[in-house]
């Protein structure tokens, strides 16, 4: 059995739903991915940098759920802040991607690299991050399998550099909106996140795509569901599942993640 190392960012989210109510909650792709990996029972470590305003209570809760925070560090200044506004049709506006402060904190809070070469059975999850940072993480991780996500912010800013990483990955997991920004993808297996339609796997060998629909659920807050799905895929692989089995379990975790506010559906009670 391997371990999951989740490398990425934490954030303090302000989420406004279709009801117009804004709520502050713990967030960041790294937090949701780590919780997704734990939801399938994988041993999971979080590699992230928090700012001075990240609540200690949130660390305590992550540890209660079994996330190893020994490599979660603090840096001077504030944690990244995300502003997410959801419309009634499910579309999302991520206004923070256009803010200079968000990009400044992205540079200042670069997560720590993996602690030396990882084992072949381990899985490194790279949450959305600049391509250069991802490349350094892949160098440090050695033979571990890499499951990599991105975001519209990075896909729009550096599509060629992200595509160049693909031959080094075990699995790339963008959304269909990100694929539209990145262009044609090749060099590794690709799983496309399709929101309420689940996942579509495009094998590296060019075999026919395989689809993994989610169970029907009532959506309360879709924040972090894709990140939790990616973490759960990595957790299944670390637990010894083949890719199809890992995807089948992960799509159910992603569906569960939308059924409560913030990460509460994954057991996190801030």
Automatic annotation (TrEMBL):
The keyword Transferase applies. This is Carbohydrate kinase PfkB domain-containing protein. GO terms for molecular function: kinase activity. PANTHER family: RIBOKINASE (PTHR10584:SF166), SUGAR KINASE (PTHR10584). It comes from Falsiroseomonas bella. The keyword Magnesium does not apply. Keywords: Kinase, Transferase. Residues 23-264 form the Carbohydrate kinase PfkB domain.
């Amino acid at each position: 059995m391997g371990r999951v190392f989740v490398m990425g960012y934490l954030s303090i989210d302000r989420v406004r739903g279709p009801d117009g109510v804004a709520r502050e909650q713990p967030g960041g792709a790294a937090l949701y991915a780590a919780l997704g990996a734990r939801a399938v029972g994988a041993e999971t470590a979080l590699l992230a940098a928090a700012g001075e305003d990240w609540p200690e209570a949130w660390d305590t809760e992550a540890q209660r759920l079994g996330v190893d925070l020994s490599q979660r560090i603090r840096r001077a200044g504030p944690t990244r802040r995300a502003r997410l506004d959801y419309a009634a049709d499910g579309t999302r506006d991520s206004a923070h991607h256009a803010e200079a402060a968000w990009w400044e904190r992205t540079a200042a809070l670069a997560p720590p690299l993996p602690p030396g070469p990882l084992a072949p059975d381990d899985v490194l999850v790279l949450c959305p991050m600049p391509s250069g940072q991802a490349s350094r993480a892949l160098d440090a991780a050695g033979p571990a399998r890499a499951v990599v996500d991105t975001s519209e912010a990075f896909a729009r800013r550096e599509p060629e550099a992200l595509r160049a990483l693909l031959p080094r990955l075990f699995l790339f997991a963008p959304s269909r909106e990100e694929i539209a920004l990145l262009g044609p993808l090749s060099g590794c297996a690709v799983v496309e996140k399709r929101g309420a339609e689940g996942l579509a796997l495009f094998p590296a060998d060019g075999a026919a795509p395989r689809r993994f629909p989610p169970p029907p659920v009532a959506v309360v807050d879709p924040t972090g569901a894709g990140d939790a799905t990616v973490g759960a895929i990595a957790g299944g692989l670390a637990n010894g599942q083949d890719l199809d089995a890992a995807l089948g379990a992960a799509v159910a975790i992603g569906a569960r993640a939308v059924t409560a506010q913030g990460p509460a559906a994954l057991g996190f009670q801030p």
